[in-house]
């Protein structure tokens, strides 16, 4: 047992380090707890006011359902599988639109950024078309493509096109020129330049564009589904409104927010990973 | 400054117009040759005629004015509140802890998803629309102001410390100017959302899916689609775009004035 | 009129006339952690500075000169050791310890005039007095005609001069200069060295200046602190002999320069 009780200077510093880390971890835990407690003050206050308002019948039950009812409805929707079904429909539409529109946007942005004549003759027209928000095109698309599945995908694609076009274009144009100069001075070959200087410097911009596209696409989808659809989460919400079941409306609003947040969070995570990689590539 | 060097607008302007001109010519030719589906493809001339008609009877100009006013009113309310709240959250740790999680959660909800709820509470009138627009305008502005106030480079804060500036002076001379680019970006985005939100609300209500019609460009377009009037649809879309661009230009011009030290 | 404005704003603070910037630095250490790596920026540095002394600090890049000045300015605190100014511990930044940053740190949204004026915001005095002080300083650093220019319209050296003017504006009894003349051409530099000496004598302030220019250190200071990096320590304190103005050809000057250059090289 003597080996264990014997404290070498190294072991002493190690245990010191450990104590340090424990203290830091404890401090972090406490900070988190404080943050959560603070952050809960407002929502809990609102919830309390809401319950009180329902209890006092300030508003009709139809207009303001009780929080409990919303909670129950949410689980009902989950249990019957209705929520998952509608959500899946919506997500499928977003992904299809994002892939089609975002891919085109990326290609367009890179070609405008790399080939000047295209930028001079074509891009102003595309930009002008994009200046009308995609929702503005909705009536036009409805006349052109009817109100079927194609309408939704095309509208989302149109929505996702612009952010990626702008992101890749601006990423190409606005990347710091000083690194170009460094590369030129170092006489790096073309391939190395693209790989080490250009690509990493536009990647963050493109990923940001992707996040923007996804969040815009999701939001646009909700509106189309509210206006013309027989499926999807937006439809479910609209159905709740028309049937004056505001508990359904509340539940779907929360789901819409949650899904939007999750999508963005997932992309942000991968963006961080990718951007970390790109920093390593630069260094 | 570098902008004017890189993009001499006068020379490029005509080149930029070539493609649209060609497209319109093609469109007119296709129409003249009778290739197109008469119901959907109206001639450019028809669009111009309905524009004139729209202005003559005031339907188009009235709709545009209504939308514009509504968007601006909602924007001023929402962005004003956003600026206040964002600045507060940006400079006060306590306020950040209290409100940031709530704001960040609410921000995730798509703007139009509020419509069913708001319409149940406020009806389909002006109150509901302005509330919706203000709600949409609030978040980008609050976010911009917060990010700006929070990300003031430490070096500039230190200048305030060594010069012993009061809290008010620090806010006025250091934090707000340093945050200005971010605030302006927030205002720009916020106006954009307000404009879009106005149109969306008008359109959604105008489609009659929620009882009642309303006015504005959104309602104009909804009606045009209902009666399959492609000329009016195109006209409405064109106006929507034109005014959106004009608003954007105005804000950008203003932001150049507001932050002359900032490179655009 | 030199006394028209001063930093004697709050009545509770000690009067500036009583004590003028004596500094005691005792066993000061500072370690920065950068990604699991420890940088010993300062290690057991002790130094006492008498009132009205002109001190220069020289040393290789990264030996902790700026870090030491930041402690004195109250922008950062040492891990170990104490620093007192006029017998009192430093509680935070104060106008009585003016600092001119290594990077000029002019606020990009304020004109030269307003940047300098910012230093007088909390100082007693009328607007006219303050304006006069600002004008006087602009003249002193040779920026007349650029009063309303924004920092991005200035050259590096001009920005540096504006920043010096801002540091001087409240007449701090202890003036901390971090390579204030680094970005200047030889002529302007020599002129501003003279100005600095004059200001120092006129204001009776204590000056601590970081510089990379050994000759500049000898021309200006009473003592030159030679520091060494990794870990940052005081290598030697060189007393500069002889009356000012000092000539570069004096044997004393040459000897001091040789001594310091030798210390820096090895
Ligand atoms: N905030 C910080 N975080 C991490 N390391 C720091 C920080 N400030 C200083 N250091 C480190 O401390 C050491 C001393 O820095 P300091 O700026 O004091 O050097 P210096 O003597 O002023 O150098 P120079 O002559 O180049 O200005 C450096 O190795 C630097 O990397
Ligand atoms: Mg330094």
UniProtKB/TrEMBL annotation, chain A:
The chain crosses the membrane at residues 33-53, 91-114, 126-146, 153-170, 190-213, 220-238, 244-263. It comes from Tianweitania populi. PROSITE patterns: ABC_TM1. One of its GO terms (cellular component) is plasma membrane. Residues 83-267 form the ABC transmembrane type-1 domain. The keyword Cell wall biogenesis/degradation does not apply. It is a multi-pass membrane protein. Its main location: membrane. Belongs to the binding-protein-dependent transport system permease family. CDD domains: TM_PBP2 (cd06261). This is ABC transmembrane type-1 domain-containing protein. InterPro entries: MetI-like, MetI-like_sf. One of its GO terms (biological process) is transmembrane transport. Keywords: Cell membrane, Membrane, Transmembrane, Transmembrane helix, Transport. It is found in: Cell membrane. SUPFAM superfamilies: MetI-like.
From TrEMBL, chain B:
Keywords: Cell membrane, Membrane, Transmembrane, Transmembrane helix, Transport. One of its GO terms (biological process) is transmembrane transport. It comes from the Bacteria. GO terms for cellular component: plasma membrane. PROSITE patterns: ABC_TM1. Its main location: membrane. The keyword tRNA processing does not apply. It is found in: Cell membrane. Residues 64-251 form the ABC transmembrane type-1 domain. It is a multi-pass membrane protein. The keyword Transmembrane applies. The chain crosses the membrane at residues 72-94, 106-124, 130-149, 170-187, 193-212, 233-252. CDD domains: TM_PBP2. Belongs to the binding-protein-dependent transport system permease family. This is ABC transmembrane type-1 domain-containing protein.
UniProtKB/TrEMBL annotation, chain C:
It comes from the Bacteria. It holds the Pfam family ABC_tran. Keywords: ATP-binding, Nucleotide-binding, Transport. InterPro entries: AAA+_ATPase, ABC_transporter-like_ATP-bd, ABC_transporter-like_CS, ABC_transporter_ATP-bind, P-loop_NTPase. The keyword Oxidoreductase does not apply. Residues 23-254 form the ABC transporter domain. One of its GO terms (molecular function) is ATP hydrolysis activity. Belongs to the ABC transporter superfamily. This is ABC transporter ATP-binding protein.
